[in-house]
């Protein structure tokens, strides 16, 4: 029987899972799919949670406020509305707590 990923956080259009075979953490949100090592997931989470949406958001042509997040590739950026940003941050916090609980239980 094949093991499935451990779901760390899940809601509509968003899931954060940890792969059983490699421990990588997968963030799937709408059409965005990101894969992290446990260390890089923690760094990404800490970085994203430290951002102040109101200070970093810009107004787009259609009147929506969005925040642009740079990635390590200068050609690739992520763009989130305030609601999307808060949804992702909540999921990242939840996933981080689940990872800590799993570490405590497995060690």
Describe the structure.
The protein has helices at 38-49, 53-56, 82-106, and strands spanning 6-11, 14-18, 25-29, 32-36, 57-59, 65-70, 77-81. The longest helix has 25 residues, at 82-106. The chain is elongated, with a radius of gyration of 15 Å. The strands form 2 sheets. Strands 1-2-3-4 form a 4-stranded antiparallel β-sheet. The model has no long low-confidence stretch (mean pLDDT 92). It is built from 3 helices and 7 strands; from the N terminus they run ββββααβββα. A hairpin with a 6-residue loop joins strand 2 (14-18) and strand 3 (25-29). The chain has a single domain, classed as Transcriptional Co-activator pc4, Chain A. Helices cover 38% and strands 33% of the residues. By secondary structure, it is an alpha+beta fold. Helix 1 packs across helix 3.
What is the share of helical residues? 25-40%
Low-confidence stretches: none
Assign the CATH architecture.
Answer: Roll
How many separate structural domains? 1
**N- to C-terminal distance:** 25 Å
Q: Give the H and E element order.
A: EEEEHHEEEH
Query: Using DSSP, what is the number of strands?
Result: 7
Number of helices in the DSSP assignment: 3
CATH-defined topology:
Transcriptional Co-activator pc4, Chain A
Taking all residues together, what is the mean pLDDT?
Answer: 92
General form: elongated
Which helices and strands, and how do they pair?
Blueprint: E1 6-11, E2 14-18, E3 25-29, E4 32-36, H1 38-49, H2 53-56, E5 57-59, E6 65-70, E7 77-81, H3 82-106
Antiparallel strand pairs: 1-2, 2-3, 3-4, 5-6, 6-7
Helix pairs in contact: 1-3
């Amino acid at each position: 029987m094949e093991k499935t990923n451990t779901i760390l956080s899940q809601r509509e259009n968003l899931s954060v899972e940890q792969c059983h075979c490699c421990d990588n953490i997968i963030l799937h949100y709408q059409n965005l799919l990101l894969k992290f090592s446990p260390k890089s997931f923690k760094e990404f989470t800490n970085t994203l949670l430290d951002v102040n949406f109101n200070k970093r958001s810009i107004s787009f042509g259609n009147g929506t406020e969005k925040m642009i997040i740079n990635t390590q590739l200068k050609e690739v950026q992520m763009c989130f509305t305030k609601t999307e940003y808060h949804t992702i941050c909540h999921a990242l916090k939840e996933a981080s707590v689940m990872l800590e609980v799993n570490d405590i239980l497995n060690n």
